[in-house]
């Protein structure tokens, strides 16, 4: 006998869940969760989520029963390597975030696409609240995973112009111009530059500042611009190229403290007297520069101010929906490695 149908109940319409919203908006569930909890996400994702909520008739006040808890309380920190500046910023940021009940997860991507992808996937899996990163190397600039990471991104030191995010950058061009103007004021006209990476915004900015100061002064000699890298080895061999030229410079500015250390290796090896025979200024400071005699003049990059800006952007991001750009000035510290040039015979 067929079963009686009198016991059947009419099917109740299922209420849409956060998973339905995520599917309709084509975003991750965690992204919808961040939106519902008032955390910042990409504007494009926010628009799609709001549209999906309206289409589905999703009621926000039922979210607590359907979403996983948004409580990672973790901040990602991603750089290519740990130099003196990165370490100082990481230490300051860690202390600041600990006071806010947050944990900083530091990773390096060493410039390769593979480690870049691994790092970003790790951060995505841990549902970080924000990513603080130095926007360096082609691996980072071209990563679609970075562009698709739905979290609050704050870049520092180097920029990725096409990425819609907050950034805190140094006034590289103004700082370099300050160093070159100082040497011009001492009477130098042959000023060499050991440049930084041309694919980094910081390298481009420092080159721009050098070129601007030289154009306003004695004019630009392209043979005095060498290097194009940040390493200590580059400083050594670029310094050799400058000093072995037909008309060597009487002063050299290094675009990074690492290249300045390499130049100092060469100077010590050749017995060149600083600053009587060669004036040197480094863009970027380190503890060693205050210990050698004479001390090395340097453009100091204040890490504390960078941390202050990052913390401010992190705390206020929910209020500031459009990307924010902040600039930090560098300070020229004179210790004794620059002086007027000696008059050359002949």
From TrEMBL:
The keyword Phosphoprotein does not apply. The keyword Transcription regulation applies. Signal peptide: none annotated. Keywords: DNA-binding, Transcription, Transcription regulation. InterPro entries: HTH_LacI, LacI/GalR-like_sensor, Lambda_DNA-bd_dom_sf, Peripla_BP_I. One of its GO terms (molecular function) is transcription cis-regulatory region binding. Residues 16-69 form the HTH lacI-type domain. This is HTH lacI-type domain-containing protein. It comes from Rhizobium oryziradicis.
